[in-house]
């Protein structure tokens, strides 16, 4: 694991008390960060206690309880750390040192907080938190540092598991490449499938745990490639086995194996935070990010006239204008957009020249008139850059919308399938040329969209889409050529179908990506998180084509405005309740936040705003909302299993109500209707039932929060977790599945014990 300054919120929150984790440790995952939060909270409470002249017995007892609780929890934590060390010999020395340090620091804190039995805790005969605050800070710093080391070392085990899983997949892939019989292939592919499932689970967990959104997006892209390529590998390999002398079949298969290896390598790069040969990843700068940085520098002149040079500012503009050439040089940019971009580029240079002139003048004399001229120059420069950004956005998104609409019918793919089955090599060659043209259009579209995507994760998604079109196009061509050479081959036909489906799927993904890019540009993501998981048209929505999407007219919006407003108020209430939870990663909180976000997008629909443009969009969103509600109910049932409080029957009753309401909403959302009046009635019913679910959610969230707080206060409303199962688990692991031993311990088991440190909050 690479080292760099620690930046986790859990650790940095302690800085006000002089606490801090080891500067050589970087926390890259949410699980490690969140595990440290309760420990930091408790120690900070201890350090920041108020030094009052008179201290009640209650205060002294509270301080002692916190110290003892920290020490006990650290003891349990260290026991797990030592067990991890014994299971992983390469980490044993480092882990043991960190565990010894943590245990020593925990004992020191317990000694310094042993004040409840003292009549005069500041007595010189006994060193305590009141007489040696520096000692407490020192012990706390050591404790945080050592606990962080243990967590990061345990995280290495997770990385090791992913690397081991990847190596298994690669080894089996090599066997698959060399097989010469169907029987052998089937046996090895079965093993390969199981290994890919394991790899998918490990990398999926890692993706969700990553803090860096850019890495998360890259991981998602790599995992998507592996998922699609697994089916491609099956059909391409079978085709090659059936037609061993066919060159196009071999090229097709080799392409799949090559792409899978690249994706596997990228996953390991992300997980280990390394690049081959030590090279740094240099992603090309987009126009959007370039303009954003340029404007920040220009606006910074208001505060400081000397923090950068005019040459730096000129260079930044030159880089932006060089990138606009991607638009002006593109054969797919309209004449009108090209002219506007060139005009704005010329204007931007002129505005910068004027700005620099006034700026230099302001450095010499800061008169009122000069500073007013500078403000005008700053505003005009930023306005020009905004217009340029708007123009390139319009050029990219209008091109994307036109291309996606034009290629919706997939006529070239259909023609390739037909001519391939007919064995018409000449016609296949003609349509492969058309597919190559289509590929070039879509690749160009992705490049231009990347410039205006607005966020790094969306930029990465654009790059992934570009790569997919670049690779899948030639693979479709080789699969079509194979079918044309063997028109009666069922496996060759199936293989072509698989690659065509991948192409169609990527086109469908582009429609969603375009919507997200527009959303970012228009700033609607800034109002509130919007849930972007509308189901895609396809085989799971059979009735979609029969329904014509419509929008609400002004009169209908007026009728439903009151109901929409009620929904809006409820989303605010739910957001307020979720903010009260200390653990924002809690499953119940996350479902609540997601449902609130979806309900908010439905409220925006009643105003004719937001991402839900048509009634069909609204009905899809309602279905997803109901599905999330059902998942929340399942999480509540799981939570209730831990509860032996009087509130348990009420919690179960409310969970059952939620299930019933969500089922009713799903039935309403899926019901087929025709006619304007019937459609509006269905919209009204969906909003109404969503409002009812949100009302229930407003009652459920505080109830669950109360139960958790009772637990923290020591009232015992939750059943205690089984204390120590490590010996039993370790014994059974050795007997039954020794190859999975590293999973016995890890971040999760450590997390459980650090979480138990939250016993007492400062009043």
Automatic annotation (TrEMBL):
Keyword Acyltransferase annotated: no
Gene Ontology biological process terms, A to Z: cell adhesion; Rho protein signal transduction
Swiss-Prot/TrEMBL keywords: Cytoplasm
Localization (cell): Cytoplasm
Ranges of Low complexity composition bias in the record: 7-18
Region spans: Disordered: 1-20
GO molecular function: actin filament binding; cadherin binding
Stored SUPFAM superfamilies: alpha-catenin/vinculin-like
The keyword Cell division appears for this protein: no
Transmembrane regions: none
Cellular component per GO, a single term: cytoplasm
PANTHER family found in the cross-reference section: ALPHA-CATULIN (PTHR46342)
Family classification: Belongs to the vinculin/alpha-catenin family.
Protein name: Alpha-catulin
Organism: Bucco capensis (collared puffbird)
Gene: Ctnnal1
């Amino acid at each position: 694991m690479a080292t760099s300054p620690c930046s986790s919120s859990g650790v940095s929150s302690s800085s006000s008390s002089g606490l801090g984790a080891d500067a050589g440790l970087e926390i890259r995952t949410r699980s490690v960060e969140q595990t440290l939060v309760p420990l930091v909270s408790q120690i900070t409470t201890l350090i920041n206690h108020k030094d009052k002249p008179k201290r009640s017995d209650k205060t002294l007892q509270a301080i002692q309880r916190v110290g003892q609780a920290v020490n006990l929890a650290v003891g349990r934590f260290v026991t797990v750390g030592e067990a991890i060390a014994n299971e992983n010999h390469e980490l044993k020395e480092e882990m043991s040192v960190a565990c010894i340090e943590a245990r020593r620091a925990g004992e020191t804190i317990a000694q310094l907080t042993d004040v409840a039995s003292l009549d005069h805790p500041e007595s010189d005969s006994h060193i305590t938190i009141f007489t040696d605050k520096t000692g407490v800070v020192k012990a706390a710093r050591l404790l945080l540092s050592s606990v962080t080391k243990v967590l990061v070392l345990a995280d290495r085990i997770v990385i090791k598991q992913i690397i081991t899983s990847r190596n298994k997949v690669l080894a089996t892939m090599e066997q698959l490449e060399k097989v010469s019989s169907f029987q052998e292939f089937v046996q090895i592919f079965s093993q390969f499938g199981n290994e890919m499932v394991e790899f998918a689970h490990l990398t999926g967990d890692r993706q969700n745990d990553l803090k860096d959104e850019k890495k998360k997006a890259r991981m998602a892209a790599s995992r998507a490639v592996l998922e699609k390529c697994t089916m491609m590998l099956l059909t391409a390999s079978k085709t090659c086995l059936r037609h061993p002398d066919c060159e196009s079949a071999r090229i097709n298969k080799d392409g799949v194996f090559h792409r899978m290896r690249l994706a596997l390598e990228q996953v390991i790069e992300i997980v280990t935070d390394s690049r081959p040969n030590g090279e740094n990843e240099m992603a090309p700068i987009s126009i959007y990010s370039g303009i954003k940085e340029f404007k920040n520098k220009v606006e910074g002149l208001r505060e400081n006239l000397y923090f950068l040079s005019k040459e730096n500012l000129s260079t930044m503009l030159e880089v932006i204008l060089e990138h606009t050439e991607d638009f002006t040089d593109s054969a797919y940019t309209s004449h009108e957009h090209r002219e506007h971009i060139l005009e704005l580029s010329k204007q931007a240079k002129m505005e910068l020249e004027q700005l620099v002139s006034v700026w230099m003048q302001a450095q010499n004399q800061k008169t009122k008139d000069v500073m007013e001229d500078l403000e005008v120059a700053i505003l005009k420069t930023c306005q020009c850059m905004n217009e340029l950004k708007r123009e390139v956005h319009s050029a990219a998104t209008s091109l994307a919308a036109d291309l996606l609409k034009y290629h919706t019918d997939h006529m070239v793919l259909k023609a390739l399938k037909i001519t391939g089955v007919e064995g018409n090599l000449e016609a296949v060659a003609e349509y492969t040329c058309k597919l190559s043209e289509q590929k070039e259009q879509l690749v160009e579209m992705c490049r231009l969209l990347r410039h205006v995507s607005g966020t790094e994760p969306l930029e990465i998604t654009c790059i992934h889409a570009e790569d997919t079109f670049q690779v899948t196009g030639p693979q479709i061509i080789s699969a079509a050529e194979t079918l044309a050479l063997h028109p009666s081959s069922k496996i060759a036909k199936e293989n072509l179908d698989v690659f065509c489906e991948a192409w169609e799927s990527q086109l469908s993904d582009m429609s969603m990506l375009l919507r997200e890019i527009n959303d970012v540009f228009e700033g609607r993501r800034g109002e509130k998180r919007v849930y972007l998981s509308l189901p895609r048209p396809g085989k799971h929505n059979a009735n979609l084509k029969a329904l014509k999407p419509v929008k609400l007219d002004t009169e209908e919006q007026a009728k439903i405005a009151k109901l929409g407003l009620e929904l809006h108020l409820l989303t605010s209430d739910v957001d307020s309740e979720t903010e009260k939870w200390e653990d924002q990663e809690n499953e119940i909180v996350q479902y609540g936040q997601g449902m609130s976000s979806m309900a908010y997008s439905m409220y925006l629909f009643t105003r004719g705003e937001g991402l839900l443009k048509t009634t069909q969009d609204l009905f899809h969103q309602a279905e997803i909302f109901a599905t999330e509600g059902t998942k929340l109910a399942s999480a509540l049932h799981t939570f209730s299993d831990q509860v032996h409080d009087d509130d348990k029957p009420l919690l179960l009753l409310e969970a059952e109500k939620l299930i019933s309401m969500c089922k009713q909403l799903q039935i309403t959302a899926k019901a087929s209707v025709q006619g304007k009046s019937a459609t509006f009635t269905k919209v009204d019913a969906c909003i109404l039932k969503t409002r009812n679910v949100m009302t229930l959610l407003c009652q459920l969230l505080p109830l669950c929060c109360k139960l958790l707080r009772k637990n923290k206060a020591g009232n015992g409303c939750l059943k205690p977790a089984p204390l120590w199962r490590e010996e039993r688990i370790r014994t059974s692991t050795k007997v039954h599945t020794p190859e999975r031993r590293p999973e016995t311990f890890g971040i999760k088991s450590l997390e459980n014990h650090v979480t138990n440190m939250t016993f007492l909050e400062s009043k």
